[in-house]
Amino acid sequence: MTIPQVTPDWAYEREHWRRGYFRVAGVDEAGRGAWAGPVTVAAVILPGTAQDYPFRDSKQLTAAQREEFAAEVRRVAVTYAIEHAWPAEIDEKNILGATHAAALRALARLEPPPQALVTDYLKLRVDIPISAPPRADALSYSVAAASLLAKTERDRLMLQLDAQHPGYGFAGHKGYGAPAHRAALRDLGVTDLHRRSYAPIRALLDTPSPLFDLETT
């Protein structure tokens, strides 16, 4: 197995450990940019032993590697939780608000609860210390672990939704704005899985012509 060159470490977690906060949760999401399906957020507390793990930012890995490493996260984690924000919540709160809400729901389910957080630039309003650096999913073991759980769980969910909504190709593009998804929207229309507040979907709903081209939005 080829391991990517960019590897996480414990630097952000150590900042919290030095201050006496040993249960540090990593938080990350998957699906913020998709046009359909939920945004999925995972929160993970790993054992505070500073050992090396194979966990990496899920975007650096193949699907098989993500599944393998996500299973390892579930095996070694002190605790973890996964939450979804569905299109209705995204349309109501906007994608950032819905992502934050799902993250807070996931954190509330952790037992024991976290004493500090490291997130991938999610500046959550919490009453515990938080580090929210950019690209934390590539730099922090805890956030990389959360990235793996969020990505694999969302991918599994999109496979299920593909069977429930045939013709849209959710199993392949996972709800993102791929050409096949654009074509399916033109041919089949918008479903309740689509984020109607997103500009391409909103424009399609506002344009009754069957000749509407999403490429022009």
TrEMBL record:
<comment type="function">
    <text>Endonuclease that specifically degrades the RNA of RNA-DNA hybrids.</text>
</comment>
<keyword id="KW-0479">Metal-binding</keyword>
<dbReference type="InterPro" id="IPR022898">
    <property type="entry name" value="RNase_HII"/>
</dbReference>
<feature type="binding site">
    <location>
        <position position="120"/>
    </location>
    <ligand>
        <name>a divalent metal cation</name>
    </ligand>
</feature>
<feature type="domain" description="RNase H type-2">
    <location>
        <begin position="22"/>
        <end position="210"/>
    </location>
</feature>
<keyword id="KW-0464">Manganese</keyword>
<dbReference type="InterPro" id="IPR024567">
    <property type="entry name" value="RNase_HII/HIII_dom"/>
</dbReference>
<dbReference type="InterPro" id="IPR036397">
    <property type="entry name" value="RNaseH_sf"/>
</dbReference>
<dbReference type="InterPro" id="IPR001352">
    <property type="entry name" value="RNase_HII/HIII"/>
</dbReference>
<dbReference type="Pfam" id="PF01351">
    <property type="entry name" value="RNase_HII"/>
</dbReference>
<keyword id="KW-0255">Endonuclease</keyword>
<keyword id="KW-0963">Cytoplasm</keyword>
<feature type="binding site">
    <location>
        <position position="28"/>
    </location>
    <ligand>
        <name>a divalent metal cation</name>
    </ligand>
</feature>
<keyword id="KW-0540">Nuclease</keyword>
<dbReference type="GO" id="GO:0004523">
    <property type="term" value="F:RNA-DNA hybrid ribonuclease activity"/>
</dbReference>
<comment type="similarity">
    <text>Belongs to the RNase HII family.</text>
</comment>
<keyword id="KW-0378">Hydrolase</keyword>
<dbReference type="InterPro" id="IPR012337">
    <property type="entry name" value="RNaseH-like_sf"/>
</dbReference>
<feature type="binding site">
    <location>
        <position position="29"/>
    </location>
    <ligand>
        <name>a divalent metal cation</name>
    </ligand>
</feature>
<protein>
    <recommendedName>
        <fullName>Ribonuclease</fullName>
        <ecNumber>3.1.26.4</ecNumber>
    </recommendedName>
</protein>
